[in-house]
Hints:
seven-stranded parallel β-sheet, 235 residues
Amino acid sequence: MTQILKPTILITGASKGLGAEIAEHYLNQGHKVVSLSRSASVVHENHLQYQADISIEADILYVIKDLKSKKIPIDVLINNAGIASMNFMVSTPLTTAASIFNTNVLGSFLVTREISKMMILQKAGRIINISSVSLPLHLEWQSIYASSKAALEEFTRIIAKELAPFNVTANILGPNPMATDLIHGIPESNLNKVLERQSIKKMGMPSDVIHCLDFFMSEKSTAITGQTIYLNGVF
Length: 235
């Protein structure tokens, strides 16, 4: 019987939190996982890890060169890496705003640009960019973070059109708050206010995210591109 090869998945920001959960899940499912993170992640024989800063072009070009030398194709790209900062707009330092946009927008752009070149040659691929419910909820104190996700979403919708002729899809997944470092330090009262604005008033779970990733990655989802799914009934 011919063995069906599972897609090779590249995940950014896989060293902790949601990214680590996603990486561990797909490794346990028999996928080969490539990760780009600033620190080490899940140890597994099928996990190829690169310690890289996605906002530094030289780091990304090195990773791509090494993947090509190892003849490792990327079938699925999950742009999970992101940073957030809760600030009143008038007291937000420029350095904070620049750091958020450099990672959430330009970093995702750099990785997507280079991986897309590989996918175009393969004439197949899936790109999934992780956004946030902070955008549709227009959350106070997150003007820069939500703006960076708005830029990422519009970027995704446009490249979905550009890459469609090559059988490459690009979609957006917006998780709601979950217990990761991204919300570390946020007062419980503020989190409860966010939950109350959701249709399903509960914290997110990595399994919810993984279910949607499976949907976007499915061979049956070739007609799904340029779309956004927000979790827990946020719209």
